[in-house]
Amino acid sequence: MAGQQFVPHVFFGFDAMMVSTAILCITYAVIIWDKLNRAIVALLGASVMVVIGALDQNEALKGIDWNTIGLLTGMMILVSVSRRSGMFEYLAIWSARKAKANPAGILLMLQLTTAVVSALLDNVTTVLLVVPVTLAITRELDVPRYPFLFAEVFASNIGGTATLIGDPPNIMIGSLAGLDFNAFIIHLTPVIIVVMAVQALMIHLVWGKTLKSTAARRALVMGMSAKETILDPTLLKQSLVVLTAVIVGFVLARPLHLEPATIALAGAAVLMFLDNWQHHAEKQSQNVHKTFGDVEWITIFFFIGLFIVVRGVEVGGLLHLLANELVAATGDNMATAGYSILWASAFLSALVDNIPFVATMIPLIKSLAPAYGGADKIEPLWWCLSLGACLGGNGTLIGASANLTVMGIAERSGIPFRFVTYAFYGMPMMVVSIAICHVYVWWRYF
Asked: CB-based burial of residue 420 (10 Å sphere; 0-12 exposed, 13-18 middle, 19+ buried)?
């Protein structure tokens, strides 16, 4: 029947929560093991969820965030076509010259740029635009690329936390809790500025101060002409127009009643049309094959599999149980509730996609309103949830969409992006950012 809630029917009558949790743990363990391609692991885990009865096919499809998939695909296509114009090489040389070709200065500049852009766009779009520039810069200077990509992952998640439209959890919280764009700016942007400053300092201390490039390489970069990198001026103009329209579309998505995936895919279709309409059929086919070949399909299918695995855990009841226990343990003290939500959201979001977790937490936080004097009194809890869920994604490679996107691009470029290595640096830095937020919410709200 339409609207009927799905009830898992696991083989041999096993408990659905235990089975789905076991599948999740095994899937993540194999991903951490890093001996099998992550897309294969995620799809196997998703398949087992359905075959064993923790989900049926319809319920599995409900778990896939098609908006994320469409947004990823659309922006990858836009970046692929735009790259042919020489746009990113131009930006790389321009950026390097502005920083006097100093690797540490470029590292800082790219972090700040990523954070600002992530506040206006979604995180995935930002890294899709910034990472190609980064790879071009680091290739010219012959410096390690991993520190730059790691820093941009952090900066994208930090910057995305600052606004309503910067990160999917914020979009969900704003919509379901009735909080507007200005509310996010007023309450979250101040602490995000502090977090970003501390993060940039930590990145500099870990990597920035040791980054060196030879005088010859720096002189070579400073002597290069950015204009000479433009291979197709017409395509450059077309790309800039379409990308600008897409960015404006993201900013105006709510009044336009459009989802980001629709905007990204529409922009991709328009740019591919502009790039191909004057060519004959054979040339068009070559261009389209090249464009679709640039899409990070490993990342796309990893997302699909992981969404289904997490949906199985959600339907099995684990996330709901954890959220209920969290709320019950705080008693009648809203400050304790806020701190618990902040820290638990951070650590859980580092291990499980923050979107289903936030979706589970929202109605539970709403249920606290009567105990604390009404819906307007529990607003600090929403900011704790947002800060914890968004910043917690920095803790591991699987904590946020931007992390996985950068990992996919890095691997295709021959740059190792390992789970354990990332967590070794990422988890302590994430804890520092949450500690700053803890002090902030204590000072401002509790």
From this structure: exposed
Using alpha carbons only, give the angle 166, 301, 85 rounded to the nearest 5 degrees: 65
Q: Is 435 helix (H, G, I), strand (E, B) or coil?
A: helix
Confidence (pLDDT) at 188: 96
Closest listed residue to residue 265, CA positions, set 127, 67, 129: 67
pLDDT in tens, 415-433: 888 889 999 999 999 999 9
CA distance 299 to 359: 23
Residue 34 has a CB neighbour count (10 Å cut-off) of 15
Place of tokens 């979604």: 122
State residue 1's pLDDT score: 43
CA-based nearest residue to 103, from 248, 204, 236, 194: 204
How many CB atoms within 10 Å of residue 272? 20
* CA dihedral sign, ordered 191, 195, 200, 204: positive
Yes or no: say if 357 and 389 are a contact pair by the CB < 8 Å rule: yes
User: Residue-wise over 324-362: b if at least 16 C-beta within 10 A, else e?
Assistant: eebbeebeeebeebbbbbbbbbbbbbbbbbbbbbbebbb
Inform me whether the pLDDT recorded for 3 exceeds 60: no
Integer CA distances (angstroms), 235 to 73, 84, 101, 239, in order: 20, 8, 28, 6
Other beta carbons less than 10 A from residue 78's beta carbon: 26
> Residue 55: is its pLDDT beyond 50?
yes
Higher pLDDT, 8 or 438: 438
- At 371, list the tokens: 């105990």
The encoded tokens of residue 352 equal 């499980």
